[in-house]
Amino acid sequence: MNNTLRNTINLFLGFLFFAALSNVSAGLKEGDCEVCIKTVEKFANTLEEAVKKDPKAIETEFRKYCKTTKNKENRFCYYLGGLEESATGILGELSKPISWSMPAEKICEKLKKKDVQICDLKFDKQIDLNTVDLKKLKVRDLKKILSDWDETCEGCIEKSDYIKRIEELKPLYASSGSAKSEL
């Protein structure tokens, strides 16, 4: 073989080697998969020891758990197939590792390889209802506060109507120690 062909082959092999190395992930970064990790930990803590050993029982319990979720956790359930309306399901990728007592971070790392959307979920920022100026929030955010409280604002048209309704309900929801709402 002549030197140019040999150099070309070596260059090509070197390129393949570095391309293969770049595809190896170094695990999750700080802040990655926050919804996944917190939801998996929360769910795993609700399981009884007998259920934790059986992947099928874990899947059944996860479907029950998903019926009570809201917002980002509900979206996470949708992606995994824990909801009836889920298009696909990869619950086995969750239930088997839980039955092996795998940590939530590792489970989410494996789930990320199956569906990247799972790790794209982020929790909404928290606001302190006692210190925030409701007049500076957008109507969308005011509606979200009411929605989180499972309340409605009948006949509300203007921003001031929503603020008035939140102020009426604030003693019921915000006075109980933690006056924070997700936005």
TrEMBL record:
Location(s) in or outside the cell: Secreted
Record domain ARMET N-terminal: where: 32-127
Pfam families in UniProt: ARMET_C, ARMET_N
Entry keyword annotation includes Signal: yes
An individual GO BP term: neuron projection development
This protein's record includes keyword Transmembrane helix: no
Main location: secreted
InterPro entries, alphabetized: ARMET-like, ARMET_C, ARMET_N, SAP_dom_sf
GO CC aspect terms: endoplasmic reticulum; extracellular space
Lineage: superkingdom: Eukaryota
Keywords: Developmental protein, Disulfide bond, Secreted, Signal
Signal peptide: 1-26
Domain ARMET C-terminal: 131-173
Similarity comment: Belongs to the ARMET family.
Record function comment: Required during the maturation of the embryonic nervous system for maintenance of neuronal and cuticular connectivity. Essential for maintenance of dopaminergic neurons and dopamine levels.
Protein name per UniProt: Mesencephalic astrocyte-derived neurotrophic factor homolog
Originating species: Clunio marinus
